[in-house]
Amino acid sequence: MIQEFKDFIAKGNVMDMAVGIIVGAAFTAIVKSMVGDLINPIIALFTGGIDFTGWFYALNGQVYASLSAAEEAGAPVFAVGRFVMAVINFLIIAFVVFMLVKTVNRIKEAAEKQEQETTEDTPAGPTELDLLIEIRDALKK
User: Fold this and answer.
1) Model confidence pLDDT, tens digit, residues 64-95
2) Nearest by Cα to 139 from 5, 131, 114
3) Is 120's pLDDT higher than 70?
4) How far is CA 109 from the centre of its chain?
5) Please, what's the b/e burial string for 97-107 (b: 16 or more CB within 10 A of its CB; e: otherwise)?
6) Rounded to whole angstroms, what are the CA distances from 118 to 112, 114, 121, 123, 124?
7) Which of 78, 46, 44 is nearest to 64 (CA)?
8) What is the rounded distance in angstroms from the CA atom of residue 31 to the CA atom of residue 88?
9) Which of 6, 38, 77, 124 gives 20 to 30 Å between its CA and that of 89?
C-alpha cells in the first residue's frame, strides 16, 4: 500500500497539480492586489468616487459609517461591495487562465506541426519486407 502511494505521488499529474495549486494561490494574491490597488481606483474615478469595497446594507435598519463599523457592532450586513470585488477577481483570473491555456495550446500545436513536418520531410527507410526481398534477390544471383 505504501508503494502504491509512492507511485501515485510520483506520477507527473499529481506533481503538476500541486505546482498549479501553489502558483494559483500566489497568483490570487497578485490579482487581489491588482483589483484593489489598480482597478478599484479606476472604477471609482468613473463612478464619481464610489468605492465598491465599502458598499453594504445593514439589515437591522441602523446607519453605520463603514462596513467595518457595522461588523464590529455585530449588525447583519449584505456586503455587496465584497461580492462585486469577488466577481471582478473571478473574471480577471478566469480571463488570465484562458489566455495562458490558449497560449500553451498554441505552442503545443506549433511543436506538433513542426514535428509532423520533420517526420514528413525525412525519407522513410526501407521496410522489413523490402530488405527481405533484396536479400532474397541477392541470394538468387
Assistant:
1) 888 888 888 888 998 888 888 788 878 877 88
2) 131
3) no
4) 19
5) eeeeeeeeeee
6) 10, 6, 5, 10, 12
7) 78
8) 10
9) 77
> Quick one: angle between helices 12-34 and 2-10, nearest 10?
50
Nearest to 75 by CA among 55, 61, 85, 87: 61
Cell of 106: 498554441
Name the residue among 92, 75, 94, 76 with its Cα closest to residue 37: 92
| 39 Cβ contact list (under 8 Å, min separation 6) | 88, 92
Q: How many residues can be counted in the chain?
A: 141
What tens digit of pLDDT does each residue of 36-61 get? Answer: 788 778 877 887 776 677 788 888 88
Work out the angle between the directed axes of helices 12-34 and 80-121 (0-180°, nearest 10): 130
Q: Read off the C-alpha cell for 125.
A: 527507410
Instruction: For the chain, list the domains and their CATH numbers.
Output: 2-140 (1.10.1200)
Residue 55's SS3 state is coil
Residue 122 grid coordinates: 525525412
Percentages helix, strand, coil for the chain (3-state, rounded to 5) are 75, 5, 20
Q: Which helix (H) or strand (E) holds 115?
A: helix 80-121
99 residue type, one letter? M
